Amino acid sequence: MEAFDYDLFVIGAGSGGVRACRVAANLGARVAVAEERYFGGTCVNVGCVPKKLFSYAAHYRDDLEDSRGFGWTGAEPHFDWSVLLKNKNNEINRLNGIYKAILDNNDVTVFEARATVAGPHEISVAGKTLTARYILLAVGGWPWIPAFEGSEHAISSNEVFHYPELPAAVAIVGGGYIAVEFASILSRLGCDTTLIYRGDRLLRGFDDEVRRFITTEMGRHLDLRLEDDVGKIVNSDNVLSVTLNSGDEIRVNSVLYATGRRPMTANLGLETVGVELAENGAVRVNTHFQTAEPSIYAVGDAIDRVALTPVALAEGQIVARALFSQEKTAMDYTNIPTAVFCHPNLGTVGMTEEQALAKELDIEVYSVTVRQLKHTLSGRDEMSMIKLVVDKPSDRVLGLHMVGPDAGELVQGFAVAMNCGATKADFDRTIGIHPTLAEEFVTLRNLRKDHAAK
């Protein structure tokens, strides 16, 4: 047997990379990992975790306003951005340490340096050339800002987490979940917020009825500019004049571009091996996450399949177990639940109505818009939405969608039921918890006949 320095060398210590390291090491493999930036990857440092902490902070504005209808009175509280920033940084530093400890505790050799591929079994890192039986690319993705006049004045979502002070006015460009989430967060934290999107409704790829609903709800709290885009940005004494394609001009202190992310595969040495890349730089892999170079694998945002942290974790674990044990598991991308932490939250699992119709399935669609009990006293005009897409012949629930408080928390449980094959009859015979918003899922009788498949 040919001798290698390591059985597995992982490039990138984000969610997928660290999970692969831990599982492989526990299976007896000699493992090394290289990380040039920070442990925990995008999610821990400039993604899910700090974003959710900011979302919690933003929700307090609504909670404090709503409390008045329940008899809570007193002086108006003051929001201090510096306190949130400091506490967020402390938590991220703590998590960085945890990720590093996972590697150390599992005897994974750590290189805090950039690594590149030098051959099918070779890695260049820290001035050395090392060998590995297998190489795993878990390099993640990075925000992308298109080039246009004044684009150098725009920032990405990475920089939002390090604002030295909260801008008085901000323009956010994009209509995906990152743009929508930060528009909700910054508007609630006190920024005069404008959301600019070239489409006619937000959140492309989500259920169309949900998109219409969330677009309306977002428009209640900020300046929403649909079917428009930025033409140029001019900086004048740290005030940014943003000219839109429509001819309108807005003046802000910060322009945040949330128009997509791209895999970080450039200058990785992949031209030295047989790894194939898609046009956007994503690594092409087969169903086992193996590249065209048999000894090299890739997972997570680098392969641009489903850019979610739990997906990267599952992919990394599948690769490690396939390489160092007899367990050969295929990744199942159906019924992956996800949430958008806007205001109100959006949670979804399974098919959209449009996806079901595109597959020519015979479906029934149930949906209802309700006002949460809480807001009968708070006075807030916020609405919630519940939707089920049901396969008519089998009665199986194909898609479940919710817009409302804590949608992610609620949809996670329903995702388990759907993976067990839950039917509409199963939902109907389940006793609801009253009074809750979640009980709407088991009392839903509003069949939309005009949208059911013919």
Which topology of the largest domain does CATH recognise? FAD/NAD(P)-binding domain
Low-pLDDT windows of residues: none
Rounded to the nearest angstrom, the distance between the terminal CA atoms is 62 Å
SS strand fraction? 15-25%
Structural class: alpha/beta
Helical region count?
12
Strand tally is: 21
Tally of distinct domains: 3
Shape, principal axes of CA atoms: globular
Work out the helicity level.
25-40%
Largest sheet: 7 strands, mixed
* Overall residue-averaged pLDDT value: 96
Radius of gyration using CA atoms only: 24 Å
CATH class assignment of the largest domain: Alpha Beta
CATH superfamily of the largest domain: FAD/NAD(P)-binding domain
Molecular structure report:
By secondary structure, the protein is α/β, with parallel strands linked by helices. It folds into 3 domains: 6-142 and 262-324, 3-Layer(bba) Sandwich (FAD/NAD(P)-binding domain); 151-259, FAD/NAD(P)-binding domain (3-Layer(bba) Sandwich), CATH 3.50.50; 338-448, Enolase-like, domain 1. The chain has 12 helices and 21 strands. Strands 1, 2, 3, 4, 5, 6 and 16 form a 7-stranded mixed beta sheet that branches. Strands 17-18-21-20-19 form a 5-stranded antiparallel beta sheet, sandwiched between helices. Strand 5 and strand 6 (128-137) form a beta hairpin. The radius of gyration is 24 Å and the shape is globular. The N and C termini lie far apart (62 Å). The model has no long low-confidence stretch (mean pLDDT 96).
What topology does this entry show?
Blueprint: E1 6-11, H1 15-26, E2 31-34, H2 41-46, H3 48-67, H4 81-105, E3 109-111, E4 115-119, E5 122-125, E6 128-137, E7 141-143, H5 157-160, E8 169-173, H6 177-188, E9 192-197, H7 208-219, E10 223-226, E11 230-236, E12 239-244, E13 249-252, E14 254-257, E15 261-263, E16 296-298, H8 309-324, E17 338-340, E18 346-350, H9 353-358, E19 363-370, H10 375-378, E20 384-391, E21 397-403, H11 407-419, H12 424-428
Parallel strand pairs: 1-2, 1-6, 2-3, 6-16, 8-9, 8-14, 9-10
Antiparallel strand pairs: 4-5, 5-6, 7-15, 11-12, 12-13, 17-18, 18-21, 19-20, 20-21
Helix pairs in contact: 1-8, 3-4, 3-6
